[in-house]
Design goal:
heterodimer, A: alpha/beta, Rossmann fold, 8-stranded mixed sheet, two-stranded antiparallel sheet, 12 helices, globular, B: alpha/beta, 2 domains, 5-stranded mixed sheet
Chain lengths: ~280, ~375
């Protein structure tokens, strides 16, 4: 444990004023730990990492770590990241977003970054709610749940971030939870190794807002809920539809190969200089 | 001295923007199709890959400016081009570029509004959107060409200012100037003055990314060059870390303003045409300045002492020059293709010595020299 703490401290900004903004028990810290360990295992230099975020609780993550860090506007992180990656392809660009950030206000950017296969990793913390603003319902709030703006009950249907990513063309899509921290770390590592648009959806909890309003208990109890409702992709393959009701799959959901945008655009550069199209 | 090689071109205003951008060193463009700015996208989609630059068509204008800011942060001179409706969408990220001090150029080829308005007809109705479109107190630099040659020159100026002052610069073109063709002569590259952002000279551990300097502009490290720092749209301290401490916030916002205000003289581009002895002066910009020039020439032939102050810098407002005109002339006429956006500024700085009249057109047609002549006869 001491070793892990030491490792994480190697990546924290010690000149930044702590404490951080997150509530005690929040899952974002676990996700940040997994992110740092995955980056460390891959052996990236701090200088080559660009960590981009949008707005919200998850948007506050980059400020604490010692990389090139960019805290953008709400929902637009992927657009800034696209510019960085295309301008300097040697940089490793990682984008962290919350569920509202990534698929509500940023939904269009998410779809198109995936479709273009921009070579970056999008890590999305899905806690089913807008936490920072006080717990309003998001596109991933399940039907029937209570939030600050659906006190009677949420009548909107949620969608799956991972399935959206698969459909939009991401070459790698993994889903983990903050309970399954080791799996989460390995999914991030796999995503980083992938060339093209990769997504790691991180199921987390907001006990302060979502948990309180739906009487789901403490952070620990909400993590136990993750443990009890997550099924690995391998195990899910052996289960019936009925058995999978109320469950969600974790693990590698898609892993495929497609040339990333920068490689395709290199062809455009060649053609523009008179090289024959094959 | 080496003789400069000159080349002649017959170019559209939008095409001259492209030539100016490429010579200024622009190597990244992200945009979304919109009339009357599309020629800029189309030309750059052909030209940028030829010089190992990048053109990308994004999903909307919000994304376009986001990508432009990202590319600039990575060290590449970047721009986008749009028209009123797209410019409205860009306001959010325009504010980000201002607070994070990211150099970039935004072209707005103005058409009639509000909303979808008059997609293919000219207007000058985004003068105030360019000034105050994004929320919060902020300085801005806005340039406005009235000839094809000025489209070229002011695009280069726009990049130079944006790099020098770490601020987004807006090039406001009206549809007339964007689409008309004129012969222009362009000198070889070496004859053109290009400004690049000042980079830190200290080692990374000494780098304070948002430190105040005598010019008010901190040196800018590109991402990925060893200077790891934090960039945020939150108000931040000199290290780039979010702060809400009143003293830090106040110093920061005031420095943003000071970047522009203390370099006011460097930012004033205009033309004085027969202004010195003018009894009736016209203050105009964009395509209207072309009509005003003709009206002044016609007046002079008739023995009327007319003159024109042409504004190429729209913001910061050319107060000193305008005040001089207001002191000199008995009558000042401000013709513009809106309901009175610059005329309001002229009236604001008028100390009562001159009478200020306006000509306003909002029907998607240009203000003609005859119209200006008519107004002069009416009020002078």
């Amino acid at each position: 444990m001491i070793e892990v703490t030491k490792l994480i401290h190697n990546y924290l900004r010690h000149d930044k004023k702590f404490p951080h903004v997150w509530c005690p028990g929040c899952g974002i810290g676990i996700m940040l730990g997994a992110l740092i360990r995955a980056i460390d295992h891959r052996g990236y230099q701090k200088d080559e990492i660009v960590l981009v975020s949008g707005i919200g609780c998850t948007g506050r993550l980059p400020v604490y770590v010692d990389f090139n860090t960019l805290h953008t506007t709400h929902g637009r992180a992927l657009t800034f990241a696209t510019g960085i990656k295309l301008a300097k392809p040697r940089l490793k660009v990682i984008v962290v977003m919350g569920d509202g950030d990534a698929v509500a206000i940023g939904g269009n950017h998410f779809i198109h970054a995936a479709r273009r296969n921009i070579d970056l990793t999008a890590i999305i913390l899905n806690n089913s709610v807008y936490g920072m603003t006080g717990g309003q319902y998001s596109p991933t709030t399940p039907y029937g749940m209570k939030t600050a703006t659906s006190v009677y009950s949420n009548v909107e249907h949620s969608f799956s971030i991972s399935e959206l990513a698969v459909t939009a063309g991401a070459v790698f899509v993994g889903r983990g939870t903050v309970y399954h921290a080791k799996l989460l770390e390995s999914l991030m590592e796999k995503a980083f190794q992938k060339v093209g648009f990769s997504v790691v959806e991180t199921i987390s909890h907001c006990h302060t807002q979502f948990g309180r309003m739906n009487r789901m208990g403490s952070a620990v109890e909400m993590m136990q809920w993750q443990r009890d409702h997550a099924v690995t992709v391998e195990k899910a393959a052996q289960m019936t539809e009925e058995e999978l009701k109320d469950k969600f799959r974790i693990g590698v959901l898609v892993d495929r190969n497609l040339p990333p945008y920068q490689d395709e655009y290199d062809k455009v550069r060649q053609w523009s200089k008179g090289v024959e199209r094959k | 001295m080496k003789k400069k090689a000159l080349k002649e071109f017959l170019l559209q205003g939008n095409e001259a923007v492209v030539e100016g951008a490429l010579r200024a060193g622009c190597r990244f463009f992200a945009g979304y199709p919109i009339t009357p700015a599309t020629e800029i996208s189309e030309q750059l989609s052909i030209r940028l890959p030829q010089v190992d630059g990048t053109f990308i068509q994004m999903e909307d204008e919000i994304a376009s400016l986001g990508a432009v800011i990202g590319a600039s942060l990575a060290g590449v001179k970047s721009m986008t081009a749009t028209s009123g409706p797209g410019f409205s969408l860009m306001q959010e990220n325009l504010g980000f570029a201002i607070i994070a001090e990211i150099p970039c150029v935004i072209v707005n080829a103005m058409r009639g509004g509000p909303s979808t308005g008059l997609p293919t007809s000219p207007a000058q109705s985004d003068v105030m959107q360019a000034r105050w479109g994004t929320h919060g107190d902020h300085p801005i630099i806005v340039l406005c060409p009235s000839t094809v040659r000025e489209c070229f020159d002011l695009t280069i100026k726009a990049f130079n200012y944006s790099e020098k002052y770490r601020i987004p610069v807006i090039l406001l073109i009206d549809e007339v100037v964007a689409h008309m063709r004129e012969k222009i002569t362009i000198a070889d590259d070496e004859a053109i003055d290009i400004v690049n952002r000042v980079k830190p000279t200290v080692p990374p551990e000494w780098y304070i990314p948002f430190e105040d300097t005598p010019r008010g502009v901190p040196p800018m490290a590109d991402f990925g060059e060893g200077y790891r720092y934090h960039v945020t749209g939150l108000t931040h301290d000199v290290r780039g870390f979010p702060t809400s401490r009143p003293d830090e916030v106040d110093a920061f916002i005031r420095r943003l303003f000071r970047k522009v205000s203390q370099n006011f003289a460097d930012l004033q581009i205009g033309e004085h045409y027969h202004v010195d002895d003018a009894e009736v002066a016209i203050i105009a910009y964009g395509c209207v300045a072309r009509s005003a020039r003709r009206a002044v020439a016609d007046c002079r032939e008739k023995g009327i002492k007319a003159g024109m102050l042409k504004l190429n810098t729209i913001w910061p407002f050319m107060r000193t020059d305008v005040e001089k005109v207001l002191r000199q002339a008995k009558v000042v006429i401000v013709p513009e293709m809106n309901m009175g956006q610059i005329s309001r500024e002229v009236k604001r700085v008028n100390k009562g010595s001159a009478k200020v009249f306006t000509i306003n057109r909002v029907d998607g047609t240009i203000i003609t020299p005859q119209e200006i002549m008519g107004r002069i006869k009416e009020v002078f």
